[in-house]
Amino acid sequence: MDKFFQVIGLERNRAKSATNSESCSQSAVLLNVSEGYKYLGITENRNSEVSKETCKRIHEQILMRVERICNGLNGKNTINAINEYALSLINYYIGAVPMEHADYMRIYDDIRKILIKQKIHLQPANTERLYLPRKELGRGLCNLVHKSEKIELQLYKTLFNGQNTSLRRSAILKTMQEENSSTAIIESYLRYRYSIEGEIDINILESAQKASLYNEIHNKTLHEKLYRLKKNELVDIEKSSPWLTNGNISAKEEGRLCYLQDRNMFGGAPGLCQHCKERPKSVDHLASQCNRMLGIDYTQVNANSDVEIRVDTTVATSTKQSANRPDILIYDKKRRLITIIEVGITSQDQLTIVENEKKRKYDVLANEMGSVHKCKTRIIPYVLTWDGIVTVFHKSYAKEIGLTTKIQSYIQFIVLKKTLESISYEYRREGVEIIPRWREKSELDRMKSLEAPDGELSVKQETIS
Ligand SMILES: [Zn+2]
Known about the structure:
The protein has 18 helices and eight strands.
């Protein structure tokens, strides 16, 4: 130490230096028993033990930050802020303070409790989804337990691989092994926890962690239904997620729509559907299968001077056509192109069937119109499920229509929102409140001031709240 100071040409001030080792008392003040030594924010006592106080403080700090973030940012930014601003706090401490699996687990649970309290995540909804990537219909929240495992594994690997070249690394490793610290036994622990055989590295660990989330989902009767799409190779998961990856909706709204997709709305013994009184009531049934419920109008009208756009109008033809009322018909006179867009909202098991039907339904009409107006024709189906799922063909259809990702994510959001409104409205009429405090007063006021100068929205809200 003295040599080091000599080499760099600095002098040491004994009064301002502290040590917890008697042998150094010549050059630094020896600490009292009650005094602590703070090194890079970690308080160590006289015996170089990290005080339990530090762990408690980290825990509190993280929760405080999460609480502060849960206020007003949109869904995606809320989660990003929690990851970057609150959870990154742990990066430095993992491995340096004696925190165990149970400690990380407690912080992890407490974070979720805050999200539930703030209604960013609803308790009956799928917890594992919180920790899956947004492009896999998750919400992208960093999983603190998984994160601690990854950092500890990396720390162990660094020490282990460096023990022959660095005396310091081998000394730290030896101490950790003697103390049987969680980092020293991390490899065998992870092998056991995720049933990993053979070599273990960060990539293997990451995919094992993700697999364990999917495995949990698979074991739950209702939450599993959304993720059945993983088995359908015709479904495009990434293109089914733009409302999560590119949307701009509040964290609470996002939580509610995930809750809808997770289908766990009516508890364990839901009884029969009150409309048809034939099938058990379920989110799937109410959203798409019950024919006694009123359909939801998802379409919207657009107009332009150079182009003729007709929405849901009967087309006059010389021969009698059964299919002559397309959802959207665009006659571009300049480009001499007629586009028929057929919109469909369906359920997961009908998705590809409906998309095919929509594509073929107006074949005859398109041919006839093409020859009458002497122009090209094309038919584009725009089909998604009530929970926003699309096929692998959807991408090219959306491109043909010219929809940006932003617009697509908006369409998905509207479909989900309308579905949720129709289901919750139906149940409100029955006097059963399925979404506790569906719209709080403060939020209602905020929305009124934001988007409804004409009072149209407030009428709509009265029916659902
Ligand atoms: Zn029914």
